[in-house]
């Protein structure tokens, strides 16, 4: 299954089938939870999807290469250079991630085995002259878990960056990571001053509790710097995401269980209705075939009442619905009608009459309940499956 997306579909199916089997407050609660899940920002799966966003020349591709430890994205002095998104994705990525990239029209994909649950998308330059680049960035942002907004010591205070891009999205601050690249170009004594000034500007934009991670993805001399701090931070975010998703999965599982118990289907619905009904129906019809007598009718009424009671008992707390559908006075009237015409009707006709008046209404309820039970069971299994995959 495609992780949580299919679990939400399963929850929706439970909600759709619940009316008539589950009390309305539980149905309303399930509807609200499904809506909450569907409105959740980010990728609904165990992989952390990170988009690297930045201005022209900020070094997005260099940062991706530094994280990967190899050349994944091409680097050039020609600006803008990155013309289409590139996804660096796990070799063993789940099908849901592939479907997400398909939906987002990300064709260029590079596989890796460094991080089992990390996918990084290298996006086009957001402030380039190519308007299409900005449109791509704005379209992809709602679908990723986190955004690594990359700046450098020269352009971090650009008013356009803050007024046109950062301030309008500050309500999504929890989704952002800020990375300042090319720190090797600054004297060490200036690092704290520049980082502090950028944090001040971000607070003015509406970003509280801001963290800025300094890096040198492609320093003039030596190896990349600060990459370990960044990857450690990404691992922490992945853990936080798994914890949050696991909480939601637990909520789904608990709610589905409560709905199943309220409907009396959590322990299964059984598949013996048809066989037991035929046995009961035939014994009732055969018992009413002889000379009329009150004992025959009482026996037939008792047999049918016992069958209905067993069906109600299997339904647990919803058993009262069976009795409401088929009260004793209705059963007694059907028995009297069959007994009164026993001498002039065929066995098949009496069976059909009993089927039409009692069997069909009960069968409809029993089969509907069985379908709902299967839907609940699938949602329950899906929740356990997702939980297992989140921590595998």
Question: Could you describe the 3D structure shown?
Answer:
- With 392 residues, the chain is an alpha/beta fold.
- It has 2 domains: 1-39 and 246-392, no CATH class; 48-225, Rossmann fold (3-Layer(aba) Sandwich).
- 56% of the residues lie in helices and 9% in strands.
- It contains 13 helices and 7 strands.
- A 7-stranded mixed sheet has the order 3-2-4-1-5-6-7, with helices on both faces.
- Strand 2 (86-90), helix 4 and strand 3 (108-112) form a beta-alpha-beta unit.
- Helix 1 (3-17) runs antiparallel to helix 13 (347-390).
- It starts with a helix and ends with a helix.
- Residues 76-82 have low confidence and may be disordered.
Strand content: 5-15%
Largest beta sheet: strand ordering: 3-2-4-1-5-6-7
Structure class:
alpha/beta
Largest sheet: 7 strands, mixed
Helix content: 55-70%
What number of domains? 2
Fold blueprint:
Elements: H1 3-17, H2 24-38, E1 48-54, H3 60-68, E2 86-90, H4 95-103, E3 108-112, E4 118-122, H5 131-140, E5 146-151, H6 159-166, E6 176-180, H7 191-205, E7 212-214, H8 227-263, H9 273-287, H10 294-314, H11 319-325, H12 328-340, H13 347-390
């Amino acid at each position: 299954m495609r992780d949580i997306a299919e679990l939400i579909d399963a929850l929706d199916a439970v909600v759709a089938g619940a009316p008539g089997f589950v009390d309305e407050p539980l149905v309303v609660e399930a509807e609200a939870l499904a809506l909450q899940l569907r409105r959740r920002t980010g990728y609904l799966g165990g992989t952390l999807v990170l988009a690297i966003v930045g201005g022209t020349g900020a070094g997005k591709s260099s940062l991706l290469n530094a994280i990967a430890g190899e050349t994944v994205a091409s680097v050039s002095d020609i600006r803008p250079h990155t013309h289409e998104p590139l996804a660096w994705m796990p070799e063993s990525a789940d099908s849901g991630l592939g479907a997400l990239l398909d939906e987002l029209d990300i064709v260029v994909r590079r596989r890796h085995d460094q991080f089992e649950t990390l996918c990084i998308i290298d996006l086009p330059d957001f402030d380039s002259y190519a308007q299409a680049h900005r449109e791509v960035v704005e379209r992809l942002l709602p679908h990723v878990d986190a955004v690594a907004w990359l700046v450098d010591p020269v352009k971090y205070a650009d008013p356009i960056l803050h007024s046109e891009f950062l301030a309008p999205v500050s309500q999504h601050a929890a989704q952002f990571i800020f990375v300042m690249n090319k720190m090797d170009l600054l004297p060490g004594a200036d690092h704290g001053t520049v980082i502090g000034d950028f944090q001040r500007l971000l607070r003015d934009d509406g970003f509280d509790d801001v963290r800025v991670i300094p890096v040198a993805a492609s320093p003039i001399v030596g190896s990349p710097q600060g990459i370990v701090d960044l990857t450690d931070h990404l691992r922490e975010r992945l853990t936080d995401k798994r914890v949050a998703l696991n909480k939601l999965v637990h909520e789904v599982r608990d709610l589905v269980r409560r709905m199943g118990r309220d409907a009396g289907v959590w322990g299964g619905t059984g598949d013996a209705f048809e066989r037991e009904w035929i046995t009961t129906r035939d014994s009732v019809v055969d018992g009413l075939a002889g000379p009329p007598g009150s004992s025959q009718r009482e026996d037939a009424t008792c047999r049918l009442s016992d069958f209905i009671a067993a069906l109600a008992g299997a339904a647990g707390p919803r058993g009262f619905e069976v009795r409401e559908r088929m009260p004793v006075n209705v059963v007694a009237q059907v028995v009297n009608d069959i007994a009164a015409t026993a001498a002039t009707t065929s066995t098949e006709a009496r069976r059909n009459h009993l089927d039409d008046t009692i069997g069909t209404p009960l069968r409809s309820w029993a089969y509907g309940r069985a379908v709902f039970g299967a839907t609940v069971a699938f949602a329950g299994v899906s929740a356990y499956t997702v939980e297992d995959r989140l921590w595998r």
